[in-house]
C-alpha cells in the first residue's frame, strides 16, 4: 500500500482516500493530490468563496474598502478587470476606474 500524505491543514497522519479525494478524519479537510501538488509548486490565491484566481481574471469587491491616504472609497460591487497576482499581504495588483492603481487582498473580492 502506498503512503498517503499528511493533511495540509492540521498535519494529521491519519488521512484516507475517498474516491479521488483525500480526507482528514480529524479536521474534515478534503483535497486531491493534484491540488496538493499545485499548492506545493507555488502559492495559490483564492477569493472569498474559495475560487482560485489567476492573472487576467475579473473580480468583484464584496466590501466597502477605504483607500488609504485618501477620502475615496471602493464600493461593494465594483468590478475590477484584468487583475495581476503578486506576492505579499495584498496579493492582487489592479487598476480601478476612478481610483487608479491599487493593491487588494484576495479575501475582499470574489471571482466574477
From TrEMBL:
InterPro entries: YjdM, YjdM_C, YjdM_N
Domain Protein YjdM C-terminal: 45-112
Annotated TM spans: none
Annotated Gene3D superfamilies: 2.20.25.10, SH3 Domains (2.30.30.40)
Domain of life, per lineage: Bacteria
Pfam family, one: YjdM
Domain Protein YjdM N-terminal, chain residue ranges per copy: 3-32
Family that this chain belongs to: Belongs to the YjdM family.
NCBIfam families per UniProt: phnA (TIGR00686)
The protein, known as: Protein YjdM
Organism this protein belongs to: Marinobacter nauticus
